[in-house]
Design a protein that fits this description.
Elements (H helix, E strand, L loop, with lengths): L2 E3 L2 E3 L10 H4 L12 H9 L8 H5 L6 H9 L3 H11 L3 H7 L6 H4 L12 H15 L14 E5 L3 H12 L3 E6 L7 H4 L8 H13 L3 E4 L9 H7 L2 E4 L5 E2 L13 E2 H12 L15 E5 L3 H13 L3 E5 L11 H9 L3 E3 L2 E9 L2 E12 L10 E3 L5 E4 L2 E4 L3 E2 L32 E3 L2 H4 L4 H27 L1
Parallel strand pairs: 3-4, 3-6, 4-5, 6-18, 8-16, 9-10, 9-16, 10-11
Antiparallel strand pairs: 1-2, 7-17, 12-13, 13-14, 13-15
Bound molecules: flavin-adenine dinucleotide (FAD) and iron/sulfur cluster.
Flavin-adenine dinucleotide binds next to α9, β4, α13, α14 and α16.
Length: 473
C-alpha cells in the first residue's frame, strides 16, 4: 500500500517504540522511546492531508496538526514548532500524556482506511524536545510592562498556561501553590514513566525566567485568604484542581486499611525527585497489591506498584474493559507489564486480620441491557462473590473539589462543588475572580486544563483592558 504526501508516495507503517516490559519494570523513566529525526519525519509524512482535519477538531486545543506534520515531514522542524506553539503553551507535555487514542489519533482518517493513525502525539513531543534542545523555545519577553497584577491560585497546567499567556502580555503574575514545587499533578500526580519531571521543570523555569513569581508552600484559605489575594491583585484566577478523594464505602474499611492513590503516587514522585525516603506505607515491594478503580489514576497506581517490585498487582474495576474511563493505551501498557485485570468486579468488603488488611471481597457484576439512549447498567451476579488476597489496597475512585471554595460564601458553586463560571468569560460570581481547569470542569485532562488556562488568560486580558479604559475615561 502507498500513501500520498506532498506529491510523493511513501510506504511507512505506524511506528511508536516503547521499552520492553521487562526494562520498564526496572525504573520510572518514560517508556516511549523518542523517535529519531528520520522516524519522526517519516511518521509525519504519513499524514495524507485528508482535507477535513478531524484530528484538529478532536484536539481540545484545536492544534493545527496537519500543518505541523507537513512541516516536520519537509524537514522544517523549527517552523513546525512555531506553528505548534501558537495554539499550545506546552506541546511537548500534551504530546506525551494526552490520551491520543480518544482525541487526535482516534479521529485520524487513516484508521478508517485500514492503516493505523499517524503518531501525532509522538511527533508533537519530538518537536518540543527538539525546540528545547536547539534553543528554539522563545523566552517570555513582553513588548511592554503593564502595571496590573494577577494572582493565580494553583501551579498546575491550567495555572501555568494562564501565567504564560498573561506574563507574555506584560502583566505582573504571581502563582501561589501549597506544594513546594510548581507543576500540580504534572509533577506530583502523573508518574515519571509517562512524563519525566525535567520536562515539567524546564517549563516552570521558562516562566520564572520570564518574570512570573512563584510563592510556593502557600495554601489559599489557610496561609492567605482569598480576600487578601483580592486586595493584593487586580485579578485572581482560581486554578486549584480537585483533590478530595472519593472514598470506598465497604464493611471492614478502617482509617488505615487502605492507601489513597494520590498519596501513593505523590510519595513515589517525591522519591524520584530525591525528596523522600522509603516509608513502608507507600511501598509495594514483595507485596500483593489490589488497586480499586478504572481511571488513569488507577492505571498509574498499578504500574507504579509493578516498578516497586510488587509480588502481584490486580486492578479491580466494576465495569468491563469497554466501559472503563481510563485510556485504552494505558490498559495495554499495564497488561504488558503483568497487571491482572478483574473486570466486572465491585468491592464489597475489606478482609483483615487484626489491623492488617488481607484481601478484598468482590461481587461479580454483569451488564444489563441498555434502556434506549442510556448507558448499560451493572448488577451483581448472585452467589458469585470472590476474594482477592492483598497486602496493600489502593483506592483510586476519583476526586471531588475540596471544601476550599465552599468557605467563600459568595463564590457560586455547582452541585458537585466545582466552581461556576461564565462559559466564555471564565468569570466567577466574585468580581475580578476567574477560574479554570479541573476546579471548574471536575477531574479532566491536562490538555483541557491548558486550553482553559489559555482562554481564561485571554478573558482576563480583555477584562483588565476594558476596565482600564473605563477608568481612564
Ligand atoms: P492541578 O494539576 O491539580 O493543579 C492544581 C494546583 O493547585 C496543585 O499544584 C495544588 O497543589 C494547588 N492547590 C490546590 N488547592 C490549593 C490552595 N488552596 N492553595 C494553593 N494551592 C492550591 N491527564 C491527562 O491528560 N493525561 C494523563 O495521563 C493524566 N494522568 C493523570 C494521573 C493522575 C494520577 C491524576 C490524578 C490525573 C491525571 N490526569 C491526566 C488529569 C490531569 O492531571 C488534570 O486534569 C490536570 O492536572 C488539571 O490541571 P489543573 O491545573 O486544573 O489542576
Ligand atoms: Fe493530540 Fe493532545 Fe497534541 Fe491535541 S494536544 S494534538 S489531542 S496530543
Amino acid at each position: 500500500k502507498t500513501l500520498k504526501q506532498g506529491g510523493t508516495f511513501v510506504v511507512e507503517p505506524r511506528r511508536l517504540s516503547k521499552a520492553t516490559a521487562e526494562l520498564r519494570a526496572r525504573g520510572f523513566g518514560e517508556i516511549t522511546i523518542p523517535p529519531s529525526t528520520e522516524t519522526a519525519e517519516k511518521q509525519a509524512s504519513r499524514c495524507t492531508d485528508c482535507g477535513v482535519p478531524f484530528c484538529q477538531n478532536a484536539c481540545p486545543l484545536q492544534n493545527n496538526i496537519p500543518d505541523w506534520l507537513r512541516l516536520s515531514a519537509e524537514n522544517e522542524p523549527r517552523e513546525a514548532w512555531r506553528v505548534a506553539s501558537l495554539t499550545s503553551t506546552m506541546p511537548e507535555i500534551c504530546g506525551r500524556i494526552c490520551p491520543q487514542d480518544r482525541l487526535c489519533e482516534g479521529a485520524c482518517t487513516l484508521n478508517q482506511s485500514g492503516w493505523d493513525a499517524v503518531t501525532i502525539g509522538s511527533v508533537e513531543a519530538w518537536l518540543g524536545d527538539q525546540a528545547f534542545a536547539n534553543g528554539w523555545v522563545e523566552p517570555i519577553r513582553p513588548a511592554a510592562e503593564r502595571g496590573e497584577s494577577v494572582g493565580v491560585v494553583g501551579a498546575g497546567p491550567a495555572g501555568m498556561a494562564a501565567a504564560d499567556r498573561l506574563r507574555s502580555e506584560g502583566y505582573q503574575v504571581t502563582v501561589y501553590d501549597r506544594h513546594d514545587r510548581a507543576g500540580g499533578l504534572l509533577i506530583y500526580g502523573i508518574p515519571g514513566f509517562k512524563l519525566e519531571k525535567h520536562v515539567v521543570q524546564r517549563r516552570v523555569d521558562r516562566l520564572i525566567d520570564g518574570g512570573v513569581q512563584f510563592v510556593l508552600g502557600c495554601e489559599i484559605g489557610k496561609d492567605v485568604t482569598l480576600a487578601e489575594l483580592r486586595e493584593r491583585h487586580d485579578v485572581v484566577l482560581l486554578a486549584m484542581g480537585v483533590y478530595q478523594p472519593r472514598i470506598l464505602s465497604a464493611p471492614g474499611r478502617g482509617p488505615d486499611s487502605t492507601v489513597a492513590a494520590l498519596s501513593y503516587l505523590t510519595h513515589q514522585n517525591r522519591r524520584d525527585l530525591g525528596d523522600a525516603e522509603e516509608d513502608g506505607w507507600h511501598e509495594a515491594r514483595g507485596k500483593r497489591v489490589v488497586v480499586i478503580g478504572g481511571g488513569d489514576t488507577a492505571m498509574d497506581c498499578v504500574r507504579t506498584a509493578v516498578r516497586q517490585g510488587a509480588a502481584s498487582v490486580t486492578c479491580l474495576y466494576r465495569r468491563d474493559r469497554e466501559n472503563m474511563p481510563g485510556s485504552a493505551r494505558e490498559v495495554v501498557n499495564a497488561e504488558e507489564e503483568g497487571v491482572v485485570f478483574e473486570w466486572l468486579g465491585a468491592p464489597k468488603a475489606l478482609l483483615s486480620q487484626g489491623d492488617r488488611v488481607t484481601g478484598v471481597r468482590a461481587a461479580r457484576m454483569q451488564l444489563t441491557e441498555a434502556a434506549p439512549g442510556q448507558r448499560r447498567d451493572i448488577v451483581p451476579v448472585p452467589g458469585a462473590d470472590f476474594d482477592i488476597p492483598a497486602d496493600i489496597v489502593i483506592e483510586a475512585l476519583g476526586f471531588s473539589p475540596e471544601p476550599f471554595a465552599a468557605h467563600e460564601p459568595d463564590l457560586r458553586l455547582r452541585d458537585d462543588g466545582t466552581i461556576k463560571v461564565g462559559s466564555v468569560s471564565f468569570a466567577t460570581s466574585l468580581p475580578g475572580v476567574f477560574a479554570a481547569g479541573d476546579a471548574v470542569r471536575g477531574a479532566s485532562l491536562v490538555v483541557w486544563a491548558v486550553r482553559e488556562g489559555q482562554d481564561a488568560a485571554a478573558e482576563i486580558d480583555r477584562y483588565l483592558k476594558t476596565r482600564t479604559e473605563e477608568v481612564a475615561a
